Amino acid sequence: MSGWRRPPADVSAHQIIESWLPRAFAAASRRPPPDSPSVRVTLSGPGGGTWDLCASEEALLVKPCESRPRHGPFSHVNPDNDRDVWIRQSVADFLALFREEPDLPALLPPDTDVMDLLCVDEGKISLLAQIDGRISVEIQGRRRRRWALDVAFGPSGMRAGRPRSTVRVDSRTCEELSSGTLAVLQALLAGRLQVEGDRALVMQVVMLVGAVRRDHTR
To answer: Measured between alpha carbons, how far is residue 211 from residues 24, 158, 215 in Å?
Structure first.
């Protein structure tokens, strides 16, 4: 699995989602629980698009989509299903997750591989199922580089026309969070994570991120 931790630097966002991710999933020994949520990914900009991702014990199914299908393996991908997740961001910001950018901090911890994102255990799914809303995260990099992620959870999140909460963080804080030297809750309480909107929704997401991070540092 060592060769499948991160996608090669020369592949496009389209190739990562439609080809590399399913192959990495097939090469891994880990599999998600049977009630894992389906994920919709929408990337804006050149080379972008919308895809539904559905993980099972056999494979990671990826389907480009313009609208929700009525039949087939993705028929359960329902915007009103509280176990679904909808990720929105630009192509450039998606690629920055896996590639080094001089103006951005490392966005994924070095010990995190793709399967950590695709295969979460039942405890994390339980936390995820409790989140219902749409949240935006913004990282202020150097030389005015700004990285953004917009994620919707549950029925309210899927229907929301815009994020209910926005979290902003600077590069230094992000680096400390990524390395594990700073806890997410500690950063929030210290004001190093700037929050606008629904703080209760942010706290739910913080609990989920903290639980995932604790697993990586054990």
So the answer is: 24, 24, 7
User: What would the two tokens of residue 204 be?
Assistant: 């739910």
For 63-99, the DSSP string reads EE-SS--SSSTTTT--TT-TT-EEEEEEHHHHHHTTS
How many CB atoms lie under 10 A from the CB of residue 9?
Answer: 9
Residue 147 has a pLDDT of 97
Helix spans in the chain (H): 13-15, 21-27, 91-96, 114-118, 122-129, 154-159, 171-179, 184-189, 199-217
Report helix, strand or coil for 207.
helix
Identify residue 72 by its one-letter amino acid code.
G
What is the pTM assigned to this prediction?
A: 0.84
* Residue 50 parent element (H or E): strand 49-55
What confidence tens digit (pLDDT) does each residue in 33-73 have? Answer: 777 788 999 999 999 999 999 888 888 899 998 644 444 44
